[in-house]
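Recap quiz, item 2
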Amino acid sequence: MRRYVTPQLLAIHFVGLLIFGSCLLLSNWQWQRAHIPRKAINPSQVVEYSKLSKQKDYLPPSSVGQRTKATGVWESQNQILLTQRPRDGRLLVDSAAINQARLGSWVVDFLDLGDGSSVAVVRGWLSAGESVTNSTGKQTVYGVVQPAEDAPYEQPISVKELLTTKKLLMNTASNVRDGFIVQTDVQPPLLPVTPTRGAFTSHGLRILNVFYTFNWLFFAFLVLAIWRRVILDEVSSATVIAQSSKLDT
Amino acid sequence: MTKAVSRNSWLFYKYMAFTVGVALLTATIAFIVKKTINPEIADASWYVHLWMAHGYLYMIYLVATFNLSLKRNWNLFKMLLVMLAGTVPLMSFIAEARLAKES
């Protein structure tokens, strides 16, 4: 037993324990990072958009599908017309169903919130060939929060022209907040659009971080194996030295 | 019997060194393309999966290297050096070629 507690072996034990413990801690850190807090707190309650999407930040997944309202002045000079779109946004993630749907345009206007920021609002759906004027004046809009259409979600959107964060930024002079509102209190001649994404009902896992968790666990076990081997090597060489010195005397 | 076991360990290491080397080289080329020609490939799912694949292959490579180091009775420094060769582009090929000369 004494041969396992020499100063050299104690130093090896210390280093082995340190690396093994670090690997376990890193594995635990990655496991914590793998959990995405995305479950909506209360999707049926109406919450101010400025509280759900902070300025100069990405829309948190927990805000998706949340009922919301925003008060501001319409930016009458900025409008995006997204063509080849069905009224039911849920069909955008179903490439087979979208081929059967009647297609028209989504009308997107920007609402200046008065604090230097704005929000994009899908005001409604128009059948192909129809046109609508830009909104003007002050208004309170009610609707449902949606993420930018290039945000990473389980089902990608199948149409070519996406309402991305970049597109939102390029179409307004103000500091646009990420995500957009699909308006529910729609004014004629527009028809209401059904939002593409519903609220998350559970928290998610980031696959990449789950992978890193296993990576670090694997490294921890590899460290154990190397540690064991180094100890055995040290002990056997110490035994050989002891035996040869015995023979010498 | 021992010779056969040692040969199996060598072949296991050799194939893993080649596979990890090819995966790392492909991922590195994709990284260079992302930084110079087409930054949008970073958003493609295959780009992330390519690096993940290299990660998994590298773990198997570590097992193969550790196994070979036991069979050939390498010192710790040599074993760690060969293990690290799987993280530097082209280095796993060089390490494999050097070890082949040794045997």
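Chain A has a mean pLDDT of 87.
The longest strand of chain A covers residues 67-85.
End of item.
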